[in-house]
């Protein structure tokens, strides 16, 4: 028996059909998904009890399905896969895809759709700065996709028909070459076409994804990246969870041109003609989750004495390192999220380009605490925010007593 649940329409599919002019196999399969109905658990039970050949497996099936649905609930999976979250909503927006539980072979598969749009002008600060972005599903960063280890994952990337450039999706983690987003059809999706990247989610951890079409720095600088989380089969300790992706914007990259090798001096190839062609390539704005100073203007509300987990990814281009510093507290750090136990406790973690990890902490005292890059230049240019720690209700009750 195959059970689908939480089937909703895939990212404005009818609108995208008009925009992208896709009539290929990929689009037909997307239409199939959008035409499936929602199954409630009661309907699933009714179906099971009607299935006379399946009586022995009913209890086991039910437990398995309930376990998967409950795990998705615990992960705070969004019911709205079409949502275009703003920078504050991005913190807790987890897209777990369209889920298909096949109980015959005990497999769960998840289908995701990412639509690439160019010339999507979006706000990148609360001071009025806008950026001519290229986006996956309308936002920088793209949606946080979430899956469980060993799930069969299918991510269909649709390059909108009105676009001018080819794009791709390169994910970190383990997968076959044809789903690596570099070689073959998955490495070059021309405008109006789509490609489905298929892999078994492994190993558990937190990962970046990004476009891998040349010039890569340009495609990344314009905004084609995001994070995905492969959760372990045995859930981590339950905590309130936030996604944080650190990035930057070189707002006049177009004037500076792509990063290239030095020009060869044909008369004397040993002569190094350096030139300062790339000298202007630097970020003018730095952020966490796409919008400068977002969490300074809208502090993240947390509670004293409760546990918090942050999935942190560094997708900063042009600067070699980035960092995360928490005021007034220490966090446990799990590098890459590939282990269960933290490696160390610190209040700073330094990440190179593409690196990531998991931070876990418990606010000890109420108050307002800054978090920011520990490079002052980055903080001054936008990478700064606040946690607003509310006093524990227990403390307040104690004081009243
Ligand atoms: Cu691209």
Broad structural category: alpha+beta
> Strand content of the residues, in percent?
25-35%
What is the straight-line distance between the termini? 57 Å
Low-confidence stretches: 6-42
Main beta-sheet strand count, sense and barrel state: 6 strands, mixed
Number of strand elements: 24
CATH superfamily of the largest domain, by name, is: Cupredoxins -  blue copper proteins
**The CATH topology of the largest domain:** Immunoglobulin-like
Bound molecules: copper (II) ion
Helix content: 10-25%
Radius of gyration: 23 Å
Give a verbal description of the structure.
The structure is a single chain. The chain is α+β, with helices and mostly antiparallel strands. It folds into two domains: about 1-235, Cupredoxins -  blue copper proteins (Immunoglobulin-like); about 260-400, Cupredoxins -  blue copper proteins (Immunoglobulin-like), CATH 2.60.40. The protein is about 20% helix and about 35% strand. Strands 1, 3, 4, 5, 7 and 9 form a six-stranded mixed sheet that branches. A six-stranded mixed sheet has the order 15-12-17-22-19-20, with no helix packed on it. A five-stranded mixed sheet has the order 2-6-11-10-8, with no helix packed on it. A hairpin with a 7-residue loop joins strand 13 and strand 14 (about 270-275). It is globular and about 80 Å long. Mean pLDDT is about 85; it is low at about 5-40.
Describe how the helices and strands are arranged:
Layout lengths: L1 E4 L7 H8 L4 H11 L5 H10 L7 H17 L12 H4 L3 E2 L2 E5 L4 E17 L6 E7 L7 E5 L3 E8 L10 E2 L22 E7 L4 E6 L5 H6 L3 E7 L8 E10 L3 H4 L6 E2 L7 E2 L11 E4 L5 H4 L2 E4 L4 E7 L6 E6 L4 E5 L8 E3 L1 E5 L3 E6 L5 E6 L3 H5 L3 E7 L2 H8 L1
Parallel strand pairs: 2-6, 4-7, 6-11, 12-17, 16-24
Antiparallel strand pairs: 1-3, 3-4, 4-5, 7-9, 8-10, 10-11, 12-15, 13-14, 17-22, 18-21, 18-23, 19-20, 19-22, 23-24
The site of copper (II) ion has 5 residues, from loops.
């Amino acid at each position: 028996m195959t059970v689908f649940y939480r089937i909703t329409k895939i990212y404005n599919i009818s609108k995208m059909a008009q925009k992208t002019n896709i009539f290929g196999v990929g689009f037909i399969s997307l239409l199939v998904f959008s035409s499936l109905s929602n199954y409630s658990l009661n309907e699933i039970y009714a179906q099971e009890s009607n299935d006379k050949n399946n009586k022995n497996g009913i209890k086991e099936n039910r437990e398995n399905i309930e376990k998967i649905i409950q795990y998705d609930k615990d992960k705070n999976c969004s019911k709205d896969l079409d949502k275009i979250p703003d920078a504050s909503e991005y913190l807790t927006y987890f897209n777990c895809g369209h889920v298909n539980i096949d109980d015959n072979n005990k497999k769960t598969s998840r289908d995701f759709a990412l639509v690439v749009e160019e010339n999507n002008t979006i706000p990148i600060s609360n001071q009025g700065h806008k950026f001519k972005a290229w986006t996956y599903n309308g936002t920088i960063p793209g949606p946080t996709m979430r899956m469980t280890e060993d799930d069969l994952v299918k991510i269909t990337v649709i390059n909108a028909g009105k676009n001018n450039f080819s794009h791709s999706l390169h994910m970190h983690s383990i997968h076959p070459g044809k789903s690596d987003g570099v070689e073959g059809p998955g490495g070059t999706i021309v405008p109006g076409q789509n490609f489905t990247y298929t892999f078994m989610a492994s190993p558990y951890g937190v990962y970046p994804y990004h476009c891998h079409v040349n010039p890569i720095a340009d495609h990344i600088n314009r905004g084609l990246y995001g994070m995905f989380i492969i959760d372990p089969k045995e859930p981590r300790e339950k905590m309130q969870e936030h996604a944080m992706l650190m990035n930057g914007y070189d707002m006049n990259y177009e004037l500076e041109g792509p990063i290239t090798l030095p020009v060869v001096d044909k008369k004397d190839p040993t002569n190094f003609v350096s030139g300062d062609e790339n000298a202007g390539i630097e970020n003018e704005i730095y952020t966490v989750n796409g919008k400068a100073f977002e969490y300074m203007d809208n502090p993240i509300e947390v509670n004293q004495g409760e546990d918090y987990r942050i999935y942190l990814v560094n997708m900063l281009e042009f600067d070699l390192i980035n960092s995360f510093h928490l005021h007034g507290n220490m966090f446990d750090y799990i590098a890459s999220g590939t282990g269960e136990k933290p490696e160390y406790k610190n209040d700073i973690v330094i990440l190179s380009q593409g690196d990531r990890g998991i931070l876990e902490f418990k606010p000890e005292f109420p108050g307002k605490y800054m978090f920011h890059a520990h490079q002052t230049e980055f903080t001054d240019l936008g990478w700064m925010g606040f946690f607003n720690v509310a006093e524990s209700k227990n403390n307040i009750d104690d004081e009243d007593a």
